[in-house]
Amino acid sequence: MPRPARYHHGDLHDTLLREAGILLREQGVEGLSLRRLAERAGVSRTAPYHHFADKNALLCALAEQGFRRLDAMMGEVALDPADPEPGLRRFVRAYLRFASDDPEQYELMFGRTLWKGGHPGAGLKGVAYGCFRHYLVRLRPLVSRGEGDDTRPLRLAQASWATLHGLCRLLLDGIYLRREDMEAVSDQAVDLMLAALRPARR
Amino acid sequence: MPRPARYHHGDLHDTLLREAGILLREQGVEGLSLRRLAERAGVSRTAPYHHFADKNALLCALAEQGFRRLDAMMGEVALDPADPEPGLRRFVRAYLRFASDDPEQYELMFGRTLWKGGHPGAGLKGVAYGCFRHYLVRLRPLVSRGEGDDTRPLRLAQASWATLHGLCRLLLDGIYLRREDMEAVSDQAVDLMLAALRPARR
DNA sequence: GGTGCTATTTTGACGCCGTCAAGATTCAAC
DNA sequence: GTTGAATCTTGACGGCGTCAAAATAGCACC
Asked: What mean pLDDT comes out for the span A62-87?
């Protein structure tokens, strides 16, 4: 398969994405430089610029891949409106596993690097919001409707995603959560969500 | 007050911290370089190295300041075990205000830059964990004890902090939350926490 | 007042980074 | 075969964190 010393690489775009994924997983965003990436692909420093506008664009493409995986994962969990607990528990575990299986990818997907620093890019924005909408669609049947308040499912989706996200961040960055606490805390989070799904009191 | 062209600055340590805080607030971590900082302080590029071991150490000191402010803020909110709702609501709002008043500082305090990349440093770790312990102490009286399960307050503190943290991150990075949703979502978060504080069912 | 120690600050240099510009090479369509 | 576009190359620029060595200032002690 290796064609050494050809002037045209022939598959550089995909190779870059693949190697970038590996480098990201192994070294994190900090270790992912275009120069090192080019070297790994056996190509000169500036060759990547003919396939990605700049580093930000490459990172966006990488994050996009991640969101597509996450979206697929969300479709696989069975949720039963009549008995939400087991499904929700599975979903929470799956989300945490997704994040901790490739922490650097998760960090890239949701980190400030893309969303604050370099601008997100339309493709990334689209698939990321699609992911949330997918979550909302799946969560909605589990939510007991308040009296005519259409925004309740949305607020619940936002708040519960925030809980999951916060859990992942604290865990991955090693701040207030340790790996061995994770199971207990995630169960606690499921209880939080379940309590909130029941009819709004008051 | 300005003493121009003196060889010894005289107050460089504090000046650096102060200017770093300003630069951080205005430009974010990305815009905070030691070289620019030195220039602002009217001093050569390597002068800061005699007051901070490296960039990581300076950022740690900066984050430490933030945690001390956060710790002080937590002490100011009144919480009534007999009627937790209003106090909790105030606390949640205060936390979100803390984060959104100086987003870059919050990002630095809880971001991967310090906790993952550069090692946190003992002082930062101490004050950060102290902050969480403070939260736990204040939350504990509000938690109805389950049957002999001593870890329930801890789990609740972890899960609820994760919710707050997730809310802040999503908001500050502009991912799934917009500023105008904030009030509604944070109210939803308070409801989440209140529901969880009641006696554990089952 | 002079002397030496230490803290502080300086200039110089190194290697890394992202990225632009200009030229070389290959490929594909005519 | 020629031409034009796509792809890849080398060279260069400015910015970064940081180390080393030299210069300067403050200070305790004689």
From this structure: 95
Cβ–Cβ < 8 Å for A67, A23: no
Tens of pLDDT, residue by residue over A28-44, are 999 999 999 999 999 99
Distance CA B21, CA B130 (A): 22
Instruction: Please check whether residue A107 is in contact with residue A101, taking contact to mean a CB–CB distance below 8 angstroms.
Output: no
Q: How does pLDDT run across B86-106, given as a tens digit for each residue? A: 999 999 999 999 999 999 999
Q: Which positions on strand C lie below 7 Å from a protein C-beta?
A: 7-13, 16-22, 25-27
Could you please state the CATH topology (level 3) that the domain comprising A62-197 is classified under: Tetracycline Repressor; domain 2 (1.10.357)
Task: Identify residue A116 by its one-letter amino acid code.
Answer: K
Q: What is the mean pLDDT of residues A148-164?
A: 90
Number of inter-chain CB pairs under 8 A, A vs B: 138
**Per-residue flag: B53 CB under 7 A of strand C:** no
A35 touches strand D (CB under 7 A): no
The whole-angstrom separation of Cα A109 and Cα A71 is: 12
Q: Which of B107, B159, B191 sits opposite A185 (nearest CB)?
A: B159
| Cβ count near B112 (within 10 Å) | 23
Superfamily of domain B59-197: Tetracycline Repressor, domain 2 (1.10.357.10)
Give me the pLDDT at residue A7, please.
62
Q: Quick one: pLDDT at residue B187? A: 93
Give the residue ranges of chain B where pLDDT is below 70.
1-5, 7-8, 118, 146-148, 199-202
The listed CATH number (1.10.10.60, 2.60.40.10, 3.30.70.920, 3.90.650.10) that belongs to domain B1-52: 1.10.10.60
Contact call for residues B100 and A158 (beta carbons, < 8 A): no
Type of residue numbered B184: A
Instruction: Give the mutation candidate from B163, B168, B172, B186 for the A interface (greatest A CB count, under 10 A).
Output: B163
Q: Is A107 in contact with B110 (Cβ distance < 8 A)? A: no
Instruction: List where CATH 1.10.10.60 sits in chain A.
Output: 1-52
Backbone angles phi, psi at B165, to 5 degrees: -65, -45
